[in-house]
Amino acid sequence: MKTINNPIFHFFLAALTVVCLPLFLRSGVLASEILIFGLAVAACNLLLGFTGLLSFGQGIFFGVGSYVAGILLTRYQIPVPLMLLLSVVLGALIAVAVGWLSIRRQGVYFVMLTLAFSQFFFFLAYSFSGLTGGDNGILDVPRPVIAGFDFTNLWSYYWFVAVIFLAVFALMLRTTQSTFGRTLSAIRENEARASAVGFPVRAFKIAAFAISGAVTALAGALHAMLIGVAPLSSIEYHTSEIILIMTIIGGSGNLFASLLGAGTYMLLADVLSTIWPRWLLLLGVALIVVALFMQRGLWGLIETLVSHITATSKRTPNAATERPLHRQADGGKA
Amino acid sequence: MTYLFQIFNGIGIGMLYFLLAVGLSVIFGLLQFVNFAHGAFYLLGAYFTYDLVERGYSFWVAMPLAAIMVMALAALTEIVLLRRIYKLPHTFHILVTVGLALIIQEMTIIVWGPLGGNVPPPEGLNGVIIVGDFIYPEYRLFVIAFTAVLAVGLWWVLEGTRIGAIVRAGSESSENTALLGYNTLRINSAVFGLGAGLAGLAGALAAPIRGVEPFMGLEALGIAFVVVVIGGMGSYTGALLAGILVGVTQSVMASLWPEGARLMIYLGMALVIVAMPRGLLGRA
Fold first, then answer.
1. A162 is a domain residue
2. Which of B269, B274, B278 would you mutate first to test chain A, the one with the most A CBs within 10 A?
3. Which sequence ranges are marked TM in the entry (chain B) (predicted)?
4. A217, A318, A326, B37: least buried by Cβ within 10 Å?
5. Chains A, B: CB contacts under 8 A, how many?
6. In a domain, B284, yes or no
7. Please, are residues A278 and B110 in contact by the beta-carbon 8 Å criterion?
8. Does residue A305 lie within any of the structural domains?
9. Which of A273, A287, A289, A333 is best to mutate for the B interface (most B CBs within 10 A)?
10. ipTM over cut 0.95
11. What CATH number did the domain enclosing A70 receive?
């Protein structure tokens, strides 16, 4: 069990996924979307899994990133690296504002506030159609050409996304392992105690929001370049909803689980939506099943399977010591 | 004079928001459970009314029947599904009710199509009232009067009757209420049915005003949250005040800056949160 909870192993799995996606998928769009949403979901997980904040507002940051890409690339010809940097900064700033206001309330009130703010930003984008293109969004967002490297082709763009994905994923893994990340977990486990020990809990929560917003906005900008549009739907409630759903389906214990959740959701959506336009009905049923029977998500399922296999393969006294370790790992998230 | 019209409109819409928010609040108060499917029950109320009126029933039959159907359906959902998840952390309450909302929304599209439709104002109330140079649709006046009577009735039931006392006791301590010999399981189902039924009734009343379409549920959910956040969860007068405030803001802004009307609602909420984190009349 120790290996499968090791962050280096998680990075290895993520890298393996990045290499394997082009081998199994024919659509470069789908493969890139899995990585892009992988980032957004990992960012959501940083709030939900590591800090204990269930945010229904992740679509705000995704949409902001998407609009930054759309506006800066089509109207001002700003170089792509600078544009990505600006989207990250703006995403972080807006996340600080949303976080600062939302953490004034706790528990379910907090969740309701994040949802209300996601509506606020949706209507903001809708009302200022001069800036955002309103219902039509911003069309003809180009894919990048950087220093002579042409990423306009779908698969070459995939590798552009893949490099950014792995770099950010590694950074996020380091963040969760750092003292900062441990403190976030302490806040999740027992906020009153973390506060009593002397941690400025609110500042930590806002910082978690800032990181989450920055990464999600980056994902949004990458997505706008991928599909060539910065649509109104990027900032809609539905985007917040699917990011959250992918997070919970994957499992909120670690960051690779987020890529797992994003991948599973995108693949299922791709298959089911071609078969049946009303496939969201099945998604609704799936959510209820996850809540009733699979509360630790897909990653939890894998952990259980692995522990069963190791427990049956070596029926030695070792297996007995292995069990409590596993429980401990679970105890936190139950 | 134009503002008077907008303000009246706003009060009418606001009373519907109040019904939505009180339903949400009652469910939360007893079950400690945020119902993300609340908008979906509002959607169902509207579509049941639409369907019954299309089949030739009078609105006066369709409207209460739709509310009762939503109530029964919600109580059934509570018995079959929701009572199994109260003990889980609230992440899973949200997951299950979001799932439920998706199922209801997609079923609505399967049954009635993606386009929506209109419900004509009921017979007897399809005219206008003229006072001086003030002209106002009769149906909207009826909505204001009807919901006002309902609000008083509901307040009396919750605060002044034995049933209300049992419900309030249940929200203080479910265990102690059960020890006194009350069937708390049955009370839970009934209260969930009542709360969702109020959303259904709001939907039924809204149908002749705004028509029906499959995504009206989500909009209603967002608004109900705003009203609850502004008014303060668990505060009856807070919900009334906030509901009317939100309705009037939306309605007046709609004549000044149509695209930004709903934006102003959410902006207002942000301002209230900055100034008074507990809402206008929130207790805890």
1. yes
2. B269
3. 12-37, 57-82, 94-115, 139-158, 190-209, 263-281
4. A318
5. 112
6. no
7. yes
8. no
9. A287
10. no
11. 1.10.3470
- Does residue B280 belong to any structural domain of this protein? no
Q: Is residue B283 part of a domain?
A: no
CB-count burial class (<10 Å; 0-12, 13-18, 19+) for A213: buried
Per-residue pLDDT of chain A (334 residues; tens, 9 = 90+): 567 778 888 898 999 998 999 888 888 899 999 999 999 999 999 999 899 899 999 999 999 999 999 999 999 888 999 999 999 999 999 999 999 999 988 878 888 889 889 989 999 999 888 888 888 899 988 888 887 788 888 898 999 999 999 999 999 999 999 999 999 999 998 888 999 988 999 999 999 999 999 999 999 999 999 999 999 989 988 899 999 999 999 988 789 999 999 999 999 999 988 888 888 899 999 999 999 988 888 888 888 888 888 887 665 544 444 444 444 444 333 3
Q: By the CB < 8 Å criterion, does A292 face chain B? A: yes
User: How many domains does chain A fold into?
Assistant: 1
Q: Which of A96, A240, A36 is nearest to B94 (CA)?
A: A240
Number of domains, chain B: 1
B interface with A, Cβ–Cβ < 8 A, is 28, 34, 81, 84-85, 88, 90-92, 94-96, 98-103, 105-107, 109-110, 218, 221-222, 225-226, 228-229, 233, 257, 259-260, 262-263, 266-267, 269-270, 273-274, 277
Q: Does B68 reside within a domain?
A: yes
Residue A230 sits at φ, ψ, to 5 deg, of -110, 90
Q: Which residues form the domain of B265? A: 2-275
Helices (H) then strands (E): counts for chain A = 15, 2
Measured between CA atoms, the residue of chain B closest to residue A120 is: B266
Alpha carbon distance, N-terminus to C-terminus of chain B = 40
Q: Does A189 touch chain B (CB under 8 A)?
A: no
Q: Which domain holds residue A92?
A: 3-272
Residues in chain A within 8 Å Cβ distance of B108 = none
The DSSP letter of residue B128 is E
What is chain A's Cα-based Rg? 20
